[in-house]
Each structure stands twice: as C-alpha cells, then as structure tokens.
Write a structure and sequence with these properties.
1 helix, 43% strand
Length: 74
C-alpha cells in the first residue's frame, strides 16, 4: 500500500529541492515532478517527491481526516 500526504512548502532551495512541513515535522523533498511551486503551497508528498500541487482547503480536509483516523478511543 502506498501513502501520499499533503505537506506545506516552507522553503525553496536550489536544484528543485524544498523544505516541507506537516504537523511540525520538516523534511527536504524533490520538486522535480511539479512546476511553479511557491512557499505556502501544499503539495502531495510520496517517497520524497512532490507529485502535484493541492488546494489549501483540500489539504486541510485531508490532514484533518488523517488526524481523526489516528485517534484511538479509550
């Protein structure tokens, strides 16, 4: 099974590299497969590569659904 998650671009670097953030965790990823990415954009991340840009509202909804799915009832 593959998992791709929305992440926010927080910095752009040379060579199609960006730093992204999800839930306070930051990681450098490749933007080689996506064009016109800016700081503040959301992208879908899979195995270290941004696959496409994502609307901010869709990213928020997806991240909320992921967070809700991780809650274990007591």
């Amino acid at each position: 099974m593959c998992l791709a998650i929305p992440v926010e671009v927080v910095a752009l670097h040379q060579g199609d590299v960006a730093t992204v953030d999800v839930g306070g965790v930051r990681k450098d990823i490749s933007l080689a497969l996506v064009e016109d990415v800016a700081v503040g954009d959301f992208v879908i991340l899979h195995v270290g590569y941004a696959l496409q840009k994502l609307d901010r509202d869709e990213a928020r909804k997806t991240l909320e659904a992921i967070a809700a799915a991780m809650v274990v009832p007591s």
